[in-house]
Amino acid sequence: MARFSVQKPFSPNSWSRFPLFNRRLHTNPQLTDQFLSLLPFCRKNQDLRALKSLLILHGLITHQPLIKQFISQCCNVGFPDLALSAFKTIETPSLYLQNLLLRTLSDNGLFEDVVLVYRKCRNSGLSSDNYTYPFVVKACAVLCDVRFGNTVHCSVLRTGFGENLVVQTALLDFYSKVGEMANARKLFDEIPQPDSVAWNALISGYSLNGLDYEVLRVFQDMRFVGVKPNASTLASIFPVFSRAAVNDIAISLHGLAYKLGYSEDESLVPALISMYANCGDLSAARDVFDTSSRKNAAFWNAVISAYTRNHKPENALSMFQTMITDEMKPNIVTFVSLLPSSENLGIRCIESFHTYVIKFGFEKEISIITALLSVYAKLGNIDSAEFFFRNVRLKNRLLWNSMVSAYAGNGVWGRSLDSFSLMQKDGFKPDSISIISVLSSCSGLKATLLGKSAHAFTIKNDIDSNLNLSNAFLAFYCNCCELVYSFRIFDRMVLKSVVSWNTMISGCVDNGELERAMLVFDRMRQNVNFDLVTLISILPSCHENPILGLNIHSLAVRTGLTSDVSLCNALVSMYVNCGDLDSARLVFDDMPLRTVVSWNAILTGCRLHNLQTEAIELFKEMTKEEEEEDQKPNYVTLLNVLPSCYTLLQGKSIHAYVFRRWIPLETPLLTSLMIMYARFENLASCTRLFSVGDKTNISLWNTIISSHLLSQNGDSAFSFFIELLRKEIDPDDVTILNLVSTCVHFKSLQISNSVLSYVVRKGFDKDVAVRNSLIDMYAKCGSISTARMLFEEGGPRTDPVSWSAIINGYGLHGDGEEALALYSRMKLLNLSPDKVTYTSILSACSHAGLFEEGLMVFGAMVGDGILPGVEHYGCMVDLLGRTGRLDEAYEIVKNLPTGSYVNALESVLGACLSHGNYSLGEEIGRHLPVLDGKKIKDCGPYVILHNIYAAAGKWVEANNVRMVMQQKQFSKDPGFSFGV
């Protein structure tokens, strides 16, 4: 029978060949000895399963001695699942059997089952000994189950094993791994003569928790008392120096390990690989791996983790594939090392890893579930993350933290805060990682009070305020516009990292404290070295100071950071915002590598500077480079290009490109296309685009209304507003501004009054921009009294636009004296008029013919430090012309830029006709052929010149002007009358 079992695995069918044995086994218990003699030959899973089936079939599953031997055999050959299922049938297990099963489960990484078996045995009244506790404590450490670990510690003290060195070392390791180093140190100090294992546990704990100074101090104490360091000691010390990321130190430590004879030690080689990886020397890390004679799973895990931490997911994937090819079985650490960076490899790769997790039987391991939860959450698949979380029966703090972080990272801030609350109800004390996620959610919700509560919670519960948590508080208060609190925390921080300084600089810039940002940057340079993020953060503060931006650019060149594409993009944006497009283009052209952000930055500059031709040419060049995935135009690119289209054909080409590249017609892109078509008065295309858009989006309605207004089609614009109301869509302030502009088009007081009633009923009259537009509307519709009433009812006026609107209104009504009175009142209130206000005042003086007053206002404007623009000179030309000072007006015109020459010239020509100065008019008329039709868009100047010649009796010249008008195909719009 023994020979049979060796040749072929047991199965129920094979056992049925021995009916006599089956019958006698069932009827004669003494023959169980023969059954037990078969157990040593059952070394395969299928043999043991067949044997268990026969035990159940013959009613021997409750035979205690037989089951104990069966469990022992399962444990010895490494089948903990069979051992566990058989163990559950025993009502009163022995201490030996308990410890045997605990060891087997622990060796196979089934730590949740370790806790379950221990609970069962304790509930059944079974005692524990110094062999039981180390396995249970280790399980608590791996599961980060602090509460149950404390319970086990109490049981250890109660049962008298508190002075056992093995148990003490296990507890020391537990407290170290859960981050309670104060308890770990207290426990270590209670050991009378700690051995190297205890010293290593303490050093490992300090190293694991980033307490580098304590690691070195304990290592010195260890050497002082004469305990010789071993490979495990060095493996704990290596991470301390690897965090310093100094390659020379890494090489020295490698030499020390070689000198002590540990360079090939299985526990030390992974630490060596990790140390070189932290120093960024991946080639040295790979050499250590390749030259190792015997490679186990820990070696493979170390090199995979090295690639992962250095952002080389493709290399990590390649190593994993090689590991599988070499028939090296991955373990839990393999997947925990591989999964964190796998989101960059795409969803298919993650699903493949998930398949391997299931294939190797790790789908119930909480550490792997946590890693899978995090990686799916990073890809935005929050449903899968919730699925993993819900299916874990015994959750630990790490899993709770991952779920809180998953919600926060995906913008589900309310659920993140709810999970934080449930975590505490589940008995887990939040740590610094929990608070960091909560602060992120509070920032997203702009919940300043909740964030402050989290800060108070941290202080009240004595949560370790490490550097990362301090930086999170800095970022939170900066995001919530509470710079005062940020600086209080920042100034009290003993240790400040580059991240701390960068956070404060970025916070100052985001809150408009540009000078303060530069002061922080200056302080930073005196304390720590700045990095790439520092320069990217500080550059937005230079948008109004090109010299400062140039200095930052020089710093980047001196430190060799200009090769980074993100910094180059920030430099391009800085120069664009400073108005120096030439420098922006130089930076762009010198970039060795460009991304779509680079193209968008320079295209934004062209759009802001109205360089339409350059923008179109850049877009053409960009489409030639779109084979590169990161240079393909996106909808932001098109939002910059569409306003630069100067022909309808170009706009249609961009529209066709959108369809050809399957770029989603999101509302911003759709509205930009509509505006483009409206500029070329193609309202049919504009309306068709409106019909396919999201009608619930108010910006779509605003665009279609403004498009019809742009084409002077007020009736259609008003009709769309009526339809908007019928669809019960709430208008916004932009809608109201468009509606008011429609009323200006109608110039109807009745419609204007109705609109005012609607605006007041909806509460939009409180908006300053809306009230200013109403003032302008009533002024242009002929009711200056209503405009003045709206102005006065607005309360204390500090907005210069309001003053400009009412002053311009009086100017349109020819009441220059009242306009000047408002200007004087404005000055008495210590309000500074801006360029627009001065334009309105000068225009009012011009319409009223108030030359002296206009001259005084112009002088006051120069005295206020406002550089006169073309519009101001235009008003002065009109004022001089109206008051008969034609020669002075003409002198101003001759000094104007070419672009504004024509309008001013027409104004002087009209004045020459009005005042009978035909000779000057004829002199000005000689310049018209030189200007050509490129600058003259209508027949106005030619009509006035014709009238001047006719008034002077020079009919030949008058007829010549008419012929020129016919050749240029100028025509004058015919007049019409309501009279009958």
In short:
With 980 residues, the protein is mainly α.
Question: If you had to describe this structure to a student in words, what would you say it looks like?
Answer:
The protein is mostly helical and about 1000 residues long. Residues about 1-30 and about 975-980 have low confidence and may be disordered.
General form: elongated
The number of helical segments is 60
Main beta-sheet annotation: none
Q: Which percent range describes the beta-strand content?
A: under 5%
The helix-and-strand class reads mainly alpha
The Rg value, from CA coordinates, equals 41 Å
Number of strands: 0
Between the first and last Cα atoms, what is the distance in angstroms? 126 Å
**Unreliable segments (pLDDT under 50, ≥5 consecutive)?**
1-28, 975-980
Helix content: over 70%
Which whole number gives the mean pLDDT? 81
What tags apply to this protein structure?
71% helix; 980 residues; mainly alpha; disordered N terminus; single chain; 60 helices
What's the arrangement of secondary structure elements?
Layout: H1 2-7, H2 12-15, H3 19-27, H4 32-38, H5 45-57, H6 64-77, H7 80-87, H8 95-107, H9 111-123, H10 132-143, H11 146-158, H12 165-177, H13 181-189, H14 196-208, H15 212-224, H16 231-243, H17 247-259, H18 269-278, H19 282-290, H20 297-309, H21 313-325, H22 332-338, H23 347-359, H24 366-378, H25 382-390, H26 397-409, H27 413-425, H28 432-445, H29 448-460, H30 467-479, H31 483-492, H32 498-510, H33 514-527, H34 532-538, H35 546-558, H36 565-577, H37 581-590, H38 596-608, H39 612-624, H40 635-641, H41 648-660, H42 667-679, H43 683-692, H44 698-710, H45 714-726, H46 733-746, H47 749-762, H48 768-780, H49 784-793, H50 800-812, H51 816-828, H52 835-848, H53 851-863, H54 870-882, H55 886-894, H56 901-915, H57 918-925, H58 928-935, H59 940-951, H60 955-967
Helix pairs in contact: 6-7, 6-8, 8-9, 8-10, 9-10, 10-11, 10-12, 11-12, 12-13, 12-14, 13-14, 14-15, 14-16, 15-16, 16-17, 16-18, 18-19, 18-20, 19-20, 20-21, 20-22, 23-24, 24-25, 24-26, 25-26, 26-27, 26-28, 27-28, 28-29, 28-30, 30-31, 30-32, 31-32, 32-33, 32-34, 34-36, 36-37, 36-38, 37-38, 38-39, ...
